[in-house]
Amino acid sequence: MNESPAAGAGEMVRVAMTILWNGQDLAALPDGSSLKRREATWLGADTTARRPDMPYGVCSLSNLTRMLPRRAVLPTTWSVWPCEPADGPTNMAIDAALLAQAVPGVAVWRWYGWSAPTVSFGRNERVAGRFSPDSLAKAGLTAVRRPTGGRALLHAREITYSVTVGLASEAGWRDAYDAVNHILHGALRHMGVDVQRAGAQPPVAPDGPVCFDLPAEGELVVEGRKLVGSAVWRQGTRYLQHGSILLHDDQAMLATASMQPMDPIPPAAALLQMPGIKDAETARATLDAAVRHALPRDAIVTAFTASASLLEEIDVQHRVFTNADQLWRR
User: Fold this and answer.
1) 57, 60, 268, 306 - which has most CB atoms within 10 Å?
2) Are residues 161 and 239 in the same domain?
3) Mean pLDDT by 10 residues, the chain (330 residues)
4) What sections of the sequence does the record tag as coiled-coil (predicted)?
5) Which domain holds residue 252?
6) Do 235 and 301 belong to one domain?
């Protein structure tokens, strides 16, 4: 007997709900449980209708299935590259060079930090009239413009990651974004952090509020407070995602560098506020191990070795990111 479209949709929702609720088998839950009631509501409803009381405020079948983790777009071969803290132009030059040399079949996961508190601006963010070299210097901050999108972000006491990969031609950037966030979500959960993925949000202009003002769809939050801020860029089939996993919430320092009065930035979540995470070094080591654990089961993980051509590309990119005209072009 052929399955009806409604039954197919219901099964897709059931699968989505199972994944969104951390793999719990909804069929095995007691009939009176809240998740069981949610499942019944989903399966008995028009899947194209808005259901704001459902998880994440996402209701249509297309939106729900779009939130499913798509780790299949990522390769099984990974190189992990832990780097020493560096200044803003160096950090961005390395990520841009990795993007320029990304090839299908291999992903590079890079860990890094910042040698001085640095504000990074999104690729197309308009900062003229909001920040200036003088306003940043008075606040004791430096600045760099990212190769990725998004909004202003202060890098200070945090763990920064980047993922670069050559995607299959048919893979969308959102597929990769969902897949990387799924790995981070699993890693933080493995560490005992009660992290969730943010639901749909109204669109924000590139020159809108700062990054940690509110989470974008799919970003990782704890009790509604943003823990991980990420930005992406795609060039053809090459994909870069990088972001900040806060150890401490220092984002309020952005207000001291602003040329205009800035609305208070909502408090962010931070790893060192989480139970069982005692210090920065422990957090870094634990997170690295947890990410490796959260990679696809068939992943082959190797240490990264920088090639001569990559080092040359880093030098080329470094000249771009130290160019003041490039930084203050908008």
Assistant:
1) 268
2) yes
3) 38 40 43 41 34 36 42 86 98 98 96 98 92 96 96 95 91 90 96 88 62 74 91 95 96 91 86 93 96 94 97 98 94
4) none
5) 71-324
6) yes
59 is catalytic: no
Q: Are residues 260 and 308 in the same domain?
A: yes
Question: What is the C-alpha to C-alpha distance for residues 110 and 306, in angstroms, rounded to an integer?
Answer: 12
Judged by DSSP in three states, 261 sits in: coil
CA atoms within 13 A on the CB side of 295: 21
Q: Are residues 43 and 142 in the same domain?
A: no
Number of neighbouring beta carbons within 10 Å of residue 24: 14
- Which one from 58, 102, 176, 211 is the annotated catalytic residue? 211
Residues 119 and 247 grouped into a single domain: yes
Residue pointed to by tokens 């051509």: 309
- Work out the number of other CB atoms within 10 angstroms of the CB of residue 223: 9
Q: What is the CATH number of the domain that holds 236?
A: 3.30.930.10
pTM of this prediction? 0.77
Q: In this structure, are residues 155 and 118 in contact, taking their beta carbons and an 8 Å threshold?
A: yes
Among 70, 52, 57, 67, which Cα is nearest to 13's? 67
